[in-house]
Amino acid sequence: MDSRKSLIGSVFSWSIKDVLNNDLYKGRVKQIPETFSSLAEYLESFINPLIEETRSDLSSSMATLSESMCGEIDFVKPSKDFELPNDLFYTIGLKESKEKKEDDDDDDDDDDDLGKGDLVAITNVRPTCINDLDRPGRPYVIAFVLGIQDHIEGFSLFVQSSKPIRVEDDMGKNKKSEVLFAVKLMNMTTNIRIWSALNSDPKTANMNIIQKVLQTPFTNAENCTLCHAEDKCSAAYSAMKARISSSDLNESQQAAVLSCIGTRECHHHYTVKMIWGPPGTGKTKTVGFLLHSLLKMECRTLTCAPTNTAVLEVTKRLLKGVTESSKYHGYGCGDLVLFGNKKRMKIKNHKELYDIFLDHRVAVLSQCYSQKSGWNYNLLSMISLLEDPKEEYSLYLKEWEEKKLKKDDENADKNNVFSESREINTYGKKIFKDERNKKVWRQIVVPTLKENSKKENNVKGKHNEKQSNRKEKDGNGLSGKKEESEKDKKAENPLTFEEFVKERFNCRGESLYFCIKNLCIHLPTSLISLEVVKKMFEAYDSLKSFKKLLQDVSSEVLKDVNAYSVNEGHNFVKFNAARSKNLHILKSLPSKFPPPYSTENDSMDIREFCLEKACIVFCTVSGSAKLHKVGTMKPFELLVIDEAAQLKECESAIPLQLSGMRHAILIGDEQQLPAMISEEADFGRSLFERLAILGHKKHLLNVQHRMHPLISLFPNREFYDNQILDGQNVKLGNYSRRFLPGKLYGTYSFINVPYGKEEFDNKHSRKNRVEVSVVSEIVASVYEECKLTNKKFRVGVISPYKAQVHAISEKIGKQYNSSDAQSDFSLSIRSVDGFQGGEEDVIIISTVRSNVSGSVGFLSNRQRTNVALTRARYCLWIVGSGMTLVNSGSVWKKLVIDAKERCCFHSAEEDKNLANAIVAALLELNQTNILVNAHALLFRSAKWKVCFTNSFWRSMGRVRDGELFNKVLFLLEKLSSGWRQPQEKKTHLVHCGSSSHFLEHYMVNKQFYLVWAVDFIEESSYYTQVLKVWDVSSLSDIPKLAKQLDIFYGSYTVDKMSRCKHVCNDGNLVVPMRWPVDSSSHEANQFLPKSLGSLRLRDEPETSTTTNR
């Protein structure tokens, strides 16, 4: 059965109505059980959920068509395999935009690019919504991309379509026809690979491991007495046991590694091992040590992970261990291979992995194995040159004479000089013919070829480095012609003997240096021993030294190298001894290494050669499907899956079925994020989680070394039943670090933001701009502290919603957004999913949700919460609405209650800067109903209570000037503290109305004034003076405002006016007056607080504290 067609056939059969119908497979998608009675039941249980998941993904992609990659079609032609009615294969040419061409070398492509495995819609409009795909009279056509090829004007797609594309005849004949577009819908590659694994023939596929995990009890290889008897254990296993016991791994890590390598000793059972690695317990370190142990045991192992990011992380860990223990730089790297899509892996950002990346290795080894530029050619050529330079020079002169006699001298010479480069470049094109970015080739091999070509040019007489300095070309080009003429003249003469020897040595030497370094790096240790590597680097150093000696030697010495005259001087003896030494070393080296070639497709042979000879291979779980297609490759013994709890169980079937695979090691944590899926039925459940539910033994890594104990306390209790111990390093006093002053910014803090407002972006993701403002202000404060202290601060901001991540990134901008490890301040803003596996010094979590009902959506997911809470080393600050989270009844309710019990619950208003940030956000949101009571936010500890009018906030909202807002707040802070502007600085306005006795106007800037007055309010049976802020207005508009307020103040009684006009001085400050409600203003003095007992009225002599009316 063609499994690809089966899944694609289902997709092709759907109408748009089907795609959007969430109940299309209702009744057919059954809950996936925890145990299975047979292999057939196991494989079948995933089929319908996979189809439904594909439909759901396609439905989601159609909802965002306006953002999908869309290309204009240049032509549509039936392929040679086209045959109605089923084999609808086409070649579709796409035009490439100018912008795309300019960005082609950027290599920053992502999954939005069209490529193999994509599902595309072909339509006559550039779609922006679903309706554009299904217009009456012109329905869309679905096509599956089988391959892609570049050409000058764009690129071509080889596709299989769901229906005939009716316009191909017109477009093929260049007739005028309607414009067509191809828009990407989704990539089907992984789902097709899963489908293939689920539809494998049980008679031919390796189902041994899968058979062992269908139901309990599970086989335990450690209990195998046949393989684990003392006399049966291999020497390699015994050596690894000693290595493990002497390592710096803790007890739980050592036990896990020992158990896993012990599994390899069993050769007649098929087993699965599980390592449970909660956050901060050194899972990556443990996996790295395990893989290094398997490497030393020469155990052929496939290491996978669900994502490219996870694959790169574990690869780096092992590579670091290999290079640090290597006696020669890079030796041993040939035993490791990393392969995958270099664009999606963004391999250009991980240059330390180039030495084991398969595409790079193929390009480098292609040159090293080349007949005209490789190791064998250059080694033998160098030996010949050193043995008898006169003979080599004679051959050169003979060749030069023959070429001179040819009529097409110039062309023949040019072709000869560049033949080597052209051959290799042609070879490189073959290697990369299906890839639009050839950077690895250009960066590594081409520079070497160019350098070698330059040196060959000198040897062949094309250039002479000893020619005199030329004058720059003049404007009319005469000088340029003269130089060309001189160049041609010099080319008529061959190199001298001395020039020839030095140039040929330099050329061959550089090629040998390239081969020595790269063969040692890229060949597996099984093909190049440490002894050979030692000799090769000895040759490398010796040739470098000889090169210096060669530059100063005379032509006579060179000619007499074989004379062995005892009467020669010191220079000859020294030179000849060095020459003999080099010859001896070079002749001791292998002239050839085992060739990878067996077919005409050299690049494919090298690729398979590298995969077969490697001991540890890295790729994504989905990418491991490519290994099923690699000929007669040596089988893998072990499968290691990192982040196994993030992997759909059906996807793990891809590597588990590889030929020869006997044991699997799953590393993960089911308490962290699972695979991302759109539907339930436990389709997203991992094999790791299912086995854990069934009680399969897990090796728990039980010591965490990341989080301060105050941070680890809640997640350890809530998610791990207090099984995790804090490491000694996090218990030390120096692990407590303060990044900002104040209780609000302790090691663990919940910062309550009560005035947030949930909003949706265009992708229906939530954001909360009040929290955005608060988080941005905290980041700014930490950044300023970093600059003051000159210490390294690494900050992470996490939110469960992508819209919030985008809003925070947009608010902060690129001012602090540096991920450079050398930078003093590093800031990473990501979703919870994006932060899994990451850690930072300080983590700020924005929970977003703010509502009365306590609705928190997928924020209630315990696994998501666990990941968010366990990323911080020294400080964790959680920003959110305490009321909403408590009302949610979720794990977040427990968290808020826990924070309150531990005195770690704080209000954002405790920090003046955060209070200002909240008000600024509310102003932006036009939340004037909240802002009327802004005193509680801004002036909680001020002497004066500040009351705001709606007019003030409306004016501020109209202006929307952040700088003006900050100046107004600064002025209000001074006023609320009791400061008053000196009389001589006041601006006087001519106005005779009632309000003139009360209104004050202070300058904010050249354009605006703050208009305010003293009023009083009744609270707790007392009248208390307050500051009433009327508006922010231009000077010319104040009289108009005063006239409007005349009506307001005109209703005041004399007693009210008297209370408003009372002034109580405390030194240089003015403090508010306070009277019992049943008293008159004239009785003020006797009711003043005891602390103001010395206050006097204005008509009495003033002391340090007075009251005035």
Summarize the topology.
Elements: H1 3-13, H2 16-20, H3 39-44, H4 47-62, E1 70-78, E2 89-95, H5 98-102, E3 118-123, E4 134-135, E5 138-139, E6 141-151, E7 154-161, H6 168-172, E8 181-187, H7 189-198, H8 208-212, H9 225-228, H10 235-245, H11 251-263, E9 271-276, H12 283-296, E10 301-305, H13 308-325, E11 336-338, H14 342-345, H15 358-368, H16 375-387, H17 389-405, H18 409-431, H19 439-460, H20 478-491, H21 497-522, H22 530-551, H23 555-559, H24 570-588, H25 602-613, E12 616-620, E13 638-641, H26 649-656, E14 663-668, H27 687-693, E15 699-700, E16 703-704, H28 709-720, E17 725-726, H29 728-731, E18 748-752, E19 758-760, E20 766-768, H30 769-789, E21 793-799, H31 802-812, E22 825-831, H32 832-835, E23 840-846, H33 862-869, E24 872-880, H34 882-887, H35 891-901, E25 905-907, H36 912-924, H37 928-931, H38 935-938, E26 946-948, H39 950-959, H40 962-976, E27 1000-1003, E28 1009-1019, E29 1022-1033, H41 1038-1050, H42 1054-1061, E30 1063-1066, E31 1069-1071, E32 1074-1076, E33 1105-1108
Parallel strand pairs: 9-14, 9-15, 10-12, 10-13, 11-12, 13-14, 16-17, 18-24, 18-25, 21-22, 21-23, 23-24, 26-29
Antiparallel strand pairs: 1-2, 1-8, 2-7, 3-6, 3-8, 4-5, 6-7, 19-20, 27-28, 28-29, 29-32, 30-31, 30-33
Written overview of the protein:
The protein is α/β, with parallel strands linked by helices and 1109 residues long. It has five domains: 3-197, no CATH class; 253-296 and 638-678 and 691-701, 3-Layer(aba) Sandwich (Rossmann fold), CATH 3.40.50.300; 329-466 and 496-562 and 572-620, no CATH class; 706-918, Rossmann fold, CATH 3.40.50; 936-1108, YaeB-like fold. The protein is 42% helix and 16% strand. The chain has a seven-stranded parallel beta sheet, with helices on one face. Strands 1-2-7-6-3-8 form a six-stranded antiparallel beta barrel. Helix 18 (409-431) packs antiparallel against helix 19 (439-460). The longest helix is centred in the middle third of the chain and has 26 residues, at 497-522. The chain is globular, with a radius of gyration of 39 Å. One of its GO terms (cellular component) is chromosome.
